[in-house]
Amino acid sequence: GEYGPEIDVYSSAAIVYELLTGRVPFDGETTAEILNRHLTDQPDLSPLPRSLQPVLGHALAKDPAVRTASLGDLLVEFDSALAGHPPVAPQQATPTPDQAPAPVAPAIQQPQTSMATIAEQPSHSRPGQPPPQRPRLFVPVVQHGPLAVRNISLSQRALESSAGMAAAILFTGILTAVGELTGMFSDTGETTPLTAVAFGLTTLIGSWALLVGTKAWEGTGPDSLSMRRLSLMLLGAGVGAAGWWLHQVLLVDLPPLAASQTSGLVDSIGSLELVRDKQPTMAGYMMFFGLLFGVRRWWWHTDGFRPKRLRVLSLLLTGSVSSLLGLAIQFPLAAAVGWGVGIAIVVQLSAPWIDPALRPARLHREEVTHG
After folding, report:
1. CA 283 to CA 27: how far, in whole Å?
2. C-alpha torsion angle, residues 240, 243, 249, 250 (rounded to 10)
3. Is residue 217 included in any domain, yes or no?
4. 275-284, pLDDT tens digit by residue?
5. CA count, 13 A, side-chain hemisphere, 87
6. Largest CB tally within 10 Å, which of 245, 263, 303, 354?
7. Distances from the Cα of 79 to the Cα of 51, 84, 128, 266, angstroms
């Protein structure tokens, strides 16, 4: 394809965005997803200073015809915004034969004059010529994602968590019934209806923990990522303990270890065994669910501003992570993948999702009500 200054403007704006916010304008779980977001999504400008949001929004525009024309124009807009002037999108004027080029001497004779001041000096037209058009203000459309800072009240968090937990009961029941009908629980050799019950209850408890844990942090921005992961890891350990207890009470064993699981990277933690008699111990359950909840970015599964309600690529990635964790700590692969993918399906379908067209109104209502 043909490449022009617009490519340099876009890449430079992306670098400036990362320098100012500490993160890239478009993030994703795979390279393909990141490239697709660069092509289709609008950048989240909320972490930027308010005065610079129109400037970088202009430079990151998808349409090259709308984007800032050159790096020089980007510098002019940036300088103007820092000086407190309204950012404008400079227009390139085509000189007519009877127009002489503007002299550059005044700019050279005023070394302390900023580029923004020179750009804002009024241009005078000759008699009989129409006056030059005023530059148009560029107002970008701000799109918010799962890490956007929002003013969400405690009652709203509780309402969305409760609605998600109620929906999780339905979706877990459907998932468990489908698994029972398709023979998903037949690898244990001693399959009973209690096997499906134990799987479903553990899936439901895990889904509830994620819905509550992620909704508690929703809208707090990227600064809370470390605490999000730590809190979810602790919740995951609790889910593991509950899952182990359920299987002990119901007298249900997990599927046997696969042939590839003769040894793991971690067999014990000090005196705590993770596996005994080819079955995970309570410590093994807690280790698996704790790592699963701490490693994955579960807020991308439950946030109301997530890209889609259900993302198949995310399910595949969760299944891969679950499989790797099972191999590392000798947790049965069938159970690891089943719980990882099952919980991911339930939380994505259960968590409230707001259509992108309705998000500006939701943001405005949150700002007015709780700002």
Report:
1. 34
2. -150
3. yes
4. 888 899 999 9
5. 24
6. 303
7. 11, 9, 34, 55
Amino acid at 246: L
Q: What global pTM score does this model have? A: 0.62
List the structure tokens of 329: 């700590």
Which residue range is the domain that position 57 belongs to? 5-83
In a domain, 197, yes or no: yes
Give φ, ψ of 149 to 5 degrees.
Answer: -80, 125
268 three-state secondary structure: strand
CATH number at residue 49: 1.10.510.10
pLDDT score, position 133? 52
Largest CA distance in the chain: 96
Say yes or no: 330 and 238 in one domain: yes
Phi/psi at 147 (nearest 5 deg)? -105, 15
pLDDT category of residue 198 using cuts at 50, 70 and 90: very high
Asked whether 298 and 345 are in contact (CB, 8 A), the reply is no
Q: Which of 25, 53, 83 is the last residue of a domain?
A: 83
Which of 22, 57, 83 terminates a domain? The answer is 83
- pLDDT tens for each residue of 77-119: 887 877 776 655 444 444 444 444 444 443 333 344 344 443 4
Average confidence (pLDDT) over 31-54: 84
Residue 88 in domain: no
Residue 353 lies in a domain: yes
106: its two tokens: 């005044």
d(CA 320, CA 311): 15
C-beta of residue 243 within 8 angstroms of C-beta of residue 336: no
* Burial of 117 (C-beta count, 10 Å sphere; 0-12/13-18/19+): middle
In this structure, which amino acid lies at residue 194?
Answer: L
DSSP H helices in 105-153: 105-109, 115-120
pLDDT, one tens digit per residue, over 304-349 is 999 999 999 999 999 999 999 999 999 999 999 999 999 999 999 9
CA distances from 291 to 192, 206, 248, 282, 326 (A): 29, 13, 22, 14, 10
Nearest C-alpha neighbor of 60 from the set 36, 40, 42, 79: 42
For the chain, what is the domain count?
A: 2
